[in-house]
Write a structure and sequence with these properties.
Length: about 140
């Protein structure tokens, strides 16, 4: 990749919106990664989206569609207008990691409720620390 292509790749905002509405939206802008819980709302409906220098498409009802010039302009405007709050992004990413940890260990709690087998103490303590550390804002 030439220096110019690398610079353009780094300067071109990119966004991936997964099909799962609970999954994080991933945005790269100016070489920085932004992760967020909120799916952007545009004038067009979509289920998933990929937006980069080379790919500008979205899925709707199981059909992949190339973006129109108007849709490209709308998504580009959204990405350029984002303010990057690195501290907030880091807090959100850490909270998401902790929430995922809680979800991955929920089976211990369910097993205790259903079968009476106690949750191991280290898991109980780690879950308590995770709940305390999550930034719910």
């Amino acid at each position: 990749m030439s220096d110019e292509a690398a610079r353009q790749s780094n300067d071109t905002p990119m966004m991936i919106v997964p099909m799962d509405p609970r999954a994080n939206v991933s945005i790269m802008r100016g070489g920085r990664h932004i992760s967020g819980p909120t799916r952007p709302i545009f004038s067009f409906a979509y289920d998933a989206m990929q937006f980069s220098m080379n790919v500008r498409s979205y899925m709707r009802d199981g059909v992949s569609r190339e973006m129109t010039p108007e849709e490209v302009a709308e998504v580009s405007g959204f990405l350029e207008g984002l303010s990057v709050d690195e501290a907030r992004s880091r807090r959100y990413a850490e909270s998401k990691r902790l929430i995922d940890y809680l979800a991955s260990t929920d089976w211990y709690v369910i097993r205790q409720l259903e079968a009476g087998k106690p949750v191991p103490e280290d898991i109980t303590q780690a879950r308590a620390r995770a709940r305390e550390a999550i930034d719910w804002s």
